[in-house]
Amino acid sequence: MPVVNYEKYCKMLDNAKKNKFAYPAINVTSEASANACIEAFAEAKSDGIIQVSTGGGQFASGALKDAVIGAISIANHVHLIAERYDINIALHTDHCQADKVESFLKPLLAESRKRVEKGDKPLFNSHMFDGSAIPLKDNMDVSVELLKECKDLGIILEVEAGVVGGEEDGVSNEDAPADKLYTTPEDMLYVQERLAEVEGGRYMFAATFGNVHGVYKPGNVKLRPSILKEGQDAVVAKCGEAASFDLVFHGGSGSSLAEIRETLDYGVIKMNVDTDTQYAFTRPIVDHMLKNYDGVLKVDGEIGNKKMYDPRGYLKLAMNGMKARVLEAISDLRGEGTTLGV
Q1: What is the pLDDT of residues 2-51, one digit of tens each?
Q2: φ/ψ of residue 225, rounded to 5
Q3: How many domains would you assign to the chain?
Q4: What is the CATH number for 122?
Q5: Is the pLDDT of residue 165 over 50?
Q6: Helix, strand counts (H, E) of the chain
Q7: Structural domain includes residue 342
Q8: CB–CB of 27/277 below 8 Å?
Q9: What's the distance, Cα to Cα, between the start and end of the chain in Å?
Q10: 118 - beta bridge partners?
């Protein structure tokens, strides 16, 4: 199945909302990490989301350090590989802050417009605009304009209000005031009211409830999933059930399984996974190098062992490690066996 179209993506999100599960959205930086995700989704018979951050795109472009070119490269690879599998894959771009809209998000939307005008699907199925660092009104002013453009192209927009703590992709909120880590019901109502201005526009909302990017020991991140319920209840009470949000969970590393699953009951349909899969990819490489140092190195003038330093060998181990962690995320989010089929 090729990467999904707009209608199938909407059905994926509706299916998750109705059946109280979520899709793990896995950040990738290379063909190898993208392949690990696709293989995991296929094995679990789960549809899934693969996403690229600005930093991930920049890395994928090599010395060019061009986030747009790198993101396009990874997306094109996923489009090609996904055709050979019988599950659905959606492509997404992660956090794009306000100062990167013109340099990252707009060029990718332009690339999708070229594809759509030729009768093809957009390159990415959804994009995230992260306006959480600017005043909420300004955040929503930009979001509304982006949602209009996304709607025209058959793309879903993800927005964020409130601050996710910690550090990701070079953006640090480690000193954010505690109250900024929790989106209020009033803020959630405002987000709904503003985005409803774009009739027929489809969006996801990353409301914050104590989330922190990075990796922490269990108990160190003080999540309050009830924040999501309070906001959803306020929106439904004022605007009706159809207005309830498709919510996104950011900064989930170190969260307990109970906390993760509680959010699913409140409308979370997508959970970003990055830090944990980075470690799962790297750990097998470390193990290989430590156990086979005399093969991967030409010690004391010896020739080493080509089988040990061939990147295909240890990268396959890395992919298997990442695949296992994606499978765990699918299980945690109740996603096993939920594919809509092709």
Answers
A1: 799 999 999 999 999 999 999 999 999 999 999 999 999 999 999 999 99
A2: -55, -25
A3: 1
A4: 3.20.20.70
A5: no
A6: 13, 11
A7: no
A8: yes
A9: 6
A10: none
Contacts of 182 (CB under 8 A, 6+ apart): 162, 208, 209, 210, 224, 227
Please report which confidence band the pLDDT of residue 145 belongs to, taking 50, 70 and 90 as the band edges. very high
Q: Give every CB contact of residue 15 below 8 A, 6+ residues apart in sequence.
A: 338, 340
Burial of 171 (0-12, 13-18, 19+ CB in 10 A): middle
| pTM greater than 0.90 (yes/no) | yes
Dig out the tokens for 195 from the structure. 């985005």
**DSSP bridge partners of 248:** 270
Q: Is 94 tagged catalytic?
A: yes
For residue range 184-231, list pLDDT tens digits in order: 899 999 999 999 999 999 999 999 887 665 554 555 557 888 989 999
Domain that holds residue 41: 6-332
Of the candidates 14, 47, 86, 94, the residue annotated as catalytic is 94
Question: Residue 142 — left, alpha, or beta (φ > 0 → left; ψ -120 to 50 → alpha)?
Answer: alpha
Look up residue 134 and give its two tokens. Answer: 């600017």
Identify whether the C-beta of residue 13 lies closer than 8 Å to the C-beta of residue 323: no
Are 222 and 210 in contact, with CB atoms under 8 Å apart? yes
Q: For residue 53, is it within any domain?
A: yes
How far apart CA 186 and CA 234 sit, in angstroms, is: 8
Yes or no: say if 104 and 61 are a contact pair by the CB < 8 Å rule. Answer: no
Q: Residue 158 — φ and ψ, nearest 5°?
A: -110, 135
Mind spelling out the 3-state secondary structure of 291-321?
HCHHHHCCHHHCCCCHHHHCHHHHHHHHHHH
249 DSSP 8-state letter:
E
Give the DSSP H or E segment for 127: strand 126-129
User: Which of 215, 283, 227 minimizes the C-alpha distance to 255?
Assistant: 215
Residue whose C-alpha is closest to residue 110's, from 160, 71, 56, 53: 71
Residue 301 domain-assigned?
yes
- The answer to whether residue 307 is domain-embedded is yes
